[in-house]
Structure formats: structure tokens, C-alpha cells
Amino acid sequence: MLKSHTFKTFQVRPGSLDCREACLSDNRCQSYNFVFKGICELNNRTKEARPEDFVENLERYYMKKSSNRVSLGSIRELPAVSCEEIKASEGGQVATGEFWLDPTGTGNPNLTHCDMKAKDIDECQGGLHSCHSNATCNNTEGSYICTCKAGFMGDGRNSCKNTLGWNRDRPANSCKHILDSGDHKGDGEYWIDPDKTGNPLKVYCDMTTDGGGWLLICTFVFNGSYEIPALLQSHREIDNSRSNMCLAKNAMSDLNAHLPVSQLRFHCRKQQVRTLHVTTASNSSGKAVVEYFTGQTDTQPEACGSFKTMDDDNSESTKFCHRWGRENNQYDVGKWGHGEDEDRLINHPIFVVSRYHWVLQNRRWNCDDHNHHASADDFWRIFAR
């Protein structure tokens, strides 16, 4: 049987030729399916035109119109989707000429020139495609593919939605804003405008870890050189093209003023050592950590009870939170930080003295270690949301 192309269904008398006669008398009929229960289905296509829709069905048999069949596209009442469909329907035996086409299925066909000598009809060049206005048309052998343009999401034909955060002209307030809108495309680059100035920033958003919605505020990947992260003095200097950067305390304070931070996430990995991966807890202790690193206070927060470990964390630091930090020249105080100022995020935010350190400074690249060498692609990243 031929599926999806029936335009008329009706009862017929058992053993009669009613189905055949009805097809012969209707110019739109190209073939018919006869249902053994005494039902006739008239089709406006043949299996040659639509071989992908010709399927086996034990309750029906298929018959092509035997005589006086009107060629597909030759009359307005029987438009084709494309010139290629006409060639397929007529077995390639059709002359170049004018044909009725309705590629979008609107019911308003147009008389269009078809060069039947060409191996393939380029629907994209001929304006015969049904792609959305915000999609691009890519010609293929016998057909075409519609793909939404960059910054748009949809099937390319019926919809291409201008998605939040995908384009410079429609920035979001934050990574979390994009996540909550349902428009995210996974981890990657997005546009946000936390200042609401009309001058958005292109940033990296982690949309998958621990619920997603994380903004990258510090990143460093070891490449064998003596480089350390650039300490940015303004949150507006965040740019996903930067491979090694970190916000200074003043920049964190500025970011928090425009985009209130509720959580921080610290993630580093040294292939020859371990992975340290923690996020601040959703409690008063975790809030104190955020306040310290965003410059709202200089009081170093208590470590234990202020964070939770991620699934890939296998660090030693997290087992000794009661020994973290330095305060007033005293070590093992059980607090975040080293008493430093602008470089709080990179200068010992987490450490157990002489054992397990997070530091990116003075040719030191420590991640839950004290003196192991770094390897290519070892990384340090900090996120905020």
C-alpha cells in the first residue's frame, strides 16, 4: 500500500470495480489502495513518486491508475513538491517545461519552469524549498535540507526560534537565565548582558554540571609555559576567547553587583595527581564563602560544612577541611583562603599547608598537591551562578 497520500476514502461494494472507476474519473487520482473490508483509498501519488511511503500491508493492496492518468504537476489540482518528484513519478520520461509546484504545501501552487534534463533540480536556487526564513537551504540529490541559522533553534521548516543567549542581539541576563528558559544547547558559548547596557558579553556557560547554569569566571590550562592566569580588574573583561584568566576581587565584587552570585564551584585536575571538585553549599556557611570571594567581606569563612564534593572529586583536601587556610599568620585554622586580597581565587583559596594546595602563582600550579609538576592539559576552573 501507499501511505500518507490518500485524499479520499469511501465504502465500495464487495467484488465491484467501484474503486477503479472512481480513480479513473478523478484527475487527481494517481493510484489507489483497496482495503479488504470494502474500503477504497484514492491517492494523489504513485509509489514511483514516493517509494519511501510504499509499505507492505496484509489488509490492503495497491494499484496504479492503469490509463488516462494525469501527469503529476501538469494541472493545478495536482501540484508536485518538486521537479525531481515529477521526474520520479513519470519514470524520467518527461520533457522540460512548466509545471505546477507547491513545495510548502500551502495549497497555492505556482507554475514553475523545470529543466528535466538536469541530473538534479536545485530547489534552493530555484526558490522551490519550504525552509523557514531563519534557516538556510542546502541542496541534496533529489531533495534539500533546511538548517536553522546560527542562534536559532527548530526543525528548519516550520520553526526557527530566535533563542535566548544564542545571539548578540538577544542576550540573556545570565547562564542560569538561559538554562531556565529552556533555550540552552548544552555547555558552550552564550551571550549575556548582566549590566543591561545593550553591550553584551560572550561567555562560557556550563549547562550540565550539578544542574547547570554556571558562568566561567576563572580558567587556566597548563601548556608547558610559565604563564599564569591574567587577573582581570573588571567583570566585563570576561571573554570566552581568553584561555587563561581569572577575576580579581574587585571584578568579582562588580560582577556580584550586577549579577548576584549564590554559589561558586572550584574544579581542578592534574592527571598525575587527583581531581579537586567542590561547590559551595546552599546554606549559611556556603553563603559566607560566596561573600568572601565576591569581596563583600574580608572575614575568612569556615571551611567544614561550607561545601559539597562532586562525583568526580577524589581529592585529599576535602578530607581535612578542619586544617584549611591561614589567618593572622596561623595555619590549620579550618578556613578558606590565605588572607590575600585581589588574587583570592588563585592564591590558596583551598589548601592544607605543605600538603594539599590550590594555587596558580609564582610558577606554581598546584591542584590538591604541593610540589608535583604539571602536565599538558591539566586545568583549573572556577564557576559562579
TrEMBL record:
PROSITE patterns reported in the protein's UniProt record: ASX_HYDROXYL, EGF_2, EGF_3, EGF_CA, FIBRINOGEN_C_2, PAN
Alphabetical keyword list: Calcium, Collagen, Disulfide bond, EGF-like domain, Glycoprotein, Membrane, Repeat, Secreted, Signal, Transmembrane, Transmembrane helix
Signal sequence segment: none
Entry GO terms, CC: collagen trimer; extracellular space; membrane
Gene3D superfamilies documented for this protein: 2.60.120.1000, Laminin
Subcellular location: Membrane; Secreted
Domain Apple: 1-67
Domain EGF-like as annotated: residue spans: 120-161
Keyword Repeat: yes
Single GO molecular function: oligosaccharide binding
Membrane topology: Single-pass type I membrane protein
Boundaries of every Fibrinogen C-terminal domain copy: 166-225
Keyword Cytoplasm listed: no
Domain of life according to the entry: Eukaryota
Gene Ontology biological process: animal organ development; system development
Protein name: EGF-like domain-containing protein
Annotated organism of origin: Stylophora pistillata (Smooth cauliflower coral)
Organism classification: Eukaryota, Metazoa, Cnidaria, Anthozoa, Hexacorallia
